[in-house]
Amino acid sequence: MSLSTGPIFMSGAGHVPHGPGMTTKIIYFMVNGKLEKAEFGCDCSAADVKDLFRAAAEVEPHHVLKMYNWRGSVVNISPRLEANTPDSCYRLEAVASDLHSVPMPPELDSMEHRLNHLETKVIEDVGKTPDAIFELKSQVESFKRKLESVKHLSWMGLFKGDGNQHLPKTPLKARTPQLSVQEEHQRVRMKFLNMSSLQVTGEVRELLKTPIFDNWQWEEAEMLVLLQVMYTDLDFLTAFHIELEVLQNFLFQVYCHYNNIPFHNFQHCFCVTQMMYGLIWLTDLRNKLGRVELLIMLTSALCHDLDHPGYNNVYQINAQTDLALRYNDISPLENHHCAVAFGILSKPECNILKNLSSEQYKHIRGGMIKCILATDMARHNEILNRFKVLQPVFDFTNREHKEVLMKIMVKVSDISNEARPMEVAEPWLDCLLQEFFNQSDSEKLKGLPVTPFMDRDKVSKPSSQTNFIRFVLLPLFTELTKLFPCLEQHILEPVRRALDYYSDMERASKEVKEEEEEEEEAKPPTGGR
Ligand code: 5GP
Ligand code: MN
User: Fold this and answer.
1) At what angle do helices 380-390 and 474-483 cross, to 10 degrees?
2) pTM of whole model > 0.85?
């Protein structure tokens, strides 16, 4: 899958115009699943050509690039690379990276640097490293090793323990070390604006309307283009007089306001919005609800976790954070997500609602507030029970009925990872547990009550999922499926398969545990007589 042929990578072309007679070479190659085209003058240096392909692969200087020809042989990346056609394209891979160059947090690096400097000075004066400095250096070194070896700190991007088996799927942005967060955002913005939604193929547009869409294949700039496609293909630009530039500014600001944390990040925002988009098409809601209601639902999904800090409401309340204080312990996070959304919309250049009447604006604002606040899982039963009562007599023209349905649709999208194919869903569970464990570790460190379902000592992947699917997902999805029977195959069946998968996993791990306990009991007692 790709956004069709990507941008053209050119070396030197921007700086050194190739004069007449100077030959340029065109190389077609596949990288990260996309067909790309590189163009460079034969006078280019080998280093320039390597840099060009490094940029195309979007890797950092310490990655090793390997180019394969159509026969599968490795070829040298140099100006002498043979020109080719799209049919005989090369394949470019970033095959290895020197993990030692993953940067440490700046504070630690600067402490180490200052210690080395101090050591040099002291050696000049005293002739040897004093014990105190030696000890400090060992402590810094051991702390660095700990950062690299403690699994639950892996979200910091420093973990080297398990061969980085989830590396291709981790949603944590592999930020270029030299770039600040702002620079990284600008890089994504430029890439987003340089792509055209016209590059999104019909095949991708169709996949985007289904729960089998694989978010892991797309980088952030591409997800922004896909979000733009969702707004365009639902005719929102025409219906609400949204200028493309304003939509792009809005989407970019939404992207900037998600944090780089294990689960509640921009990728989660994308998945929830994409599921909402899919549900709208699958249930033919375009012919059942007004365009305004669809805009409320899609935009609520997009904004529903803005600026999530990675710690849930219970933590906010127990730790008496600024958010809990500001919102008096009442859904502090959801209130914050919504307030951030309207903060973004308050800037005219981002305000996709600016060409609407004040009545329409008020209606949309009210709808979004209701939908986003409904994502607080503490209100799950309240909202589901309301829907259960209305479902048998559901009336698409009744205002209250529509409001409850919209909340249910946002809630379903929010917790719909298990409705996706297993290979898409399972990495999301790893991310969620990482965030859960970070929270329970903090709770333990701060002496706060430890949230049991987040405790790494009590929770496992299968136990977490079997309970969540049985008691939360199946009851919710079943109720929505009663109103839209076609959803059975699209969301209920995959969730039932996931329950079987995690039940088997739970059984297997219980058996292993029992065997281990039996072996332990069978061992002859050691030590005493
Ligand atoms: P969110 O915080 O994303 O708005 O609300 C959804 C909440 O539901 C998550 O924070 C998380 O607690 C829970 N949740 C969502 N998906 C799953 C899942 O697949 N497994 C489990 N155990 N909990 C989930
Ligand atoms: Mn969410």
Assistant:
1) 30
2) no
